[in-house]
Amino acid sequence: MTGSRRKYRAIYIVTAALMVAMVGGYALAATSITTMTPGQSSNVTTTPAPTGFANIGSVASEQLVVLTAAMTGSTIGGTQIGTLGLDGTPTALAACNLAPCTAQGFRPASPSAATTGDYGEQLVVNVIQPLTAAGPLGFDFAITISITVGAATSSVVVQGYLSTGTSGATAAPTVPVFVFVDLGTTTAPVINSVNVVFNQCASATSCP
Questions:
Q1: What is the pTM of this model?
Q2: CA atoms within a 13 Å half-sphere pointing along the CA-CB vector of 88
Q3: DSSP code, position 165
Q4: Fewer CB within 10 Å, N- or C-terminus of the chain?
Q5: Are 202 and 53 in contact (CB under 8 A)?
């Protein structure tokens, strides 16, 4: 009988621990994770969060894709300077004077290599193009993607530097900017999480 009591007690303790873990995980997800759509059922966190960054734009969607030649051949999003931290020269978005603006595609500045046929993560960032009088704004981005391929889990980290450009329109239009990140695998990965951090640069031509 004593053995049965110990058995039930052990089951109760394990069950209680699992309930605490589940409640804690739910609270964390509810307060700090933003699920983006359309896309697969992965989590996207943006900083500043959850709506993006002031005066520039926000992440609109994400999706797992197979990289095409057009994606891997897209413009490099800025130039990395040095080896420490986020430091680079922004690439200006093409001007758009009237909405809807043509979508623009970029590869990260670092690492800039991308291979056609690899799986990749496609992020769409809606960037506000300010009026000419206001002048362009430079910004950098760092994207960290946690993936699992088979039994192995790893992270892909990329960064880039862009400038909003300017618009001669009477209203500031929004430019959809596609960022293509090579995940380095031809085997379909599981996307565990996507974290995007934006920072406004010191100018439209220099980051930070």
A1: 0.76
A2: 28
A3: -
A4: N
A5: no
